[in-house]
Specification:
Helices cover 41% and strands 18% of the residues. It has 131 residues and is of the alpha/beta class. Helix 4 links the parallel strand 4 and strand 5 (95-98).
């Protein structure tokens, strides 16, 4: 179905998201920080990014800003307990799902974002390595 990138510094959240989305027949790749996410975006065709806000180093807001600054029209779902929804939406996130999300809400958000994404979005090459 879709290729989803999950970015969260909590391994248990990555495993939960991967198990859930895989059970809905999506392919899930995980990254524990923004730097690892950048590498995945350079090499993989991604249909949806799910990111946390609070992470060591660069946070989810930095990832959202990076994706949008490159004019990537990937749908971005923020799964976070940070309480900074307005800031994340203003930066270009498509939806914010409070952490912890139940399976029904997660599935609904993923399905909605995948069904409404821009199918003509530029997906590859996604990012150029930083110099």
């Amino acid at each position: 179905m879709a290729n989803i990138l999950v970015v969260d510094d909590e391994k248990i959240i990555c495993r939960f998201m991967k198990a859930a989305a895989s059970s809905w027949e999506h392919t899930v790749t995980t990254a524990l920080d923004v730097t690892a996410a950048e590498k995945r975006l350079q090499t993989l065709d991604i249909d949806l990014v799910i990111t946390d806000f609070n992470m060591p180093g660069r946070n989810g807001l930095a990832l959202i800003e990076l994706i949008r600054s490159l004019d990537l029209r990937l749908p971005i779902l923020v799964h976070s307990a940070s309480g900074r929804s307005a800031e994340m939406l203003a930066a270009g996130a498509d939806q914010v799902l409070p952490k912890p999300a139940d399976l029904a809400s997660l599935k609904q958000a993923i399905t909605h974002l995948l069904n409404t994404r821009d199918t003509k979005a530029v997906r590859r090459p996604l990012l150029q390595p930083h110099s």
